[in-house]
Amino acid sequence: MSNKSLLTIGFAGTVITALCCFTPLLVVILGSVGLTALVGYLDIVLLPALAIFVAITLYALWQRRKHSVSSAN
User: Fold this and answer.
1) If phi over 0 gives left and psi between -120 and 50 gives alpha, with beta otherwise, what is residue 59?
2) Which of 3, 13, 30, 52 could form a disulfide with 35 if both were Cys (CB 3.0 to 4.6 A apart)?
3) pLDDT of 73
4) What is the distance of C-alpha 59 from the center of its chain?
């Protein structure tokens, strides 16, 4: 997987997960389709997902910087 696609996946996942964590967006969507029983489990899934996507983004940025420093030398 290329560094650009890894960065894109990490950033998009971070933004989407953050929107679902910090706004009632996912609660409204689940409520509108009748799946409000799942709302209690959102923290169990969303917080680790947010941590994973932030880690992927940071790794891709680290790889990009490492590659740009090594190619400059």
Assistant:
1) alpha
2) 30
3) 64
4) 13
Q: Report the C-alpha gap between 73 and 48 in whole angstroms.
A: 38
List the chain domain ranges.
3-68
Contact in structure between 39 and 27 (CB atoms under 8 Å)? yes
Amino acid at 8: T
Q: How many residues are recorded in the chain?
A: 73
The tokens of 28 are what?
């409204």
What is the rounded CA–CA span in Å between residue 40 and residue 17? 16
Residues 6+ positions from 39 with CB-CB distance below 8 Å: 27, 30, 31
pLDDT above 80 for 71:
no
For the segment 4-48, what is each residue's pLDDT rounded down to a tens digit? Answer: 899 999 999 999 999 888 888 888 988 999 998 988 888 899 999
Entry pTM: 0.80
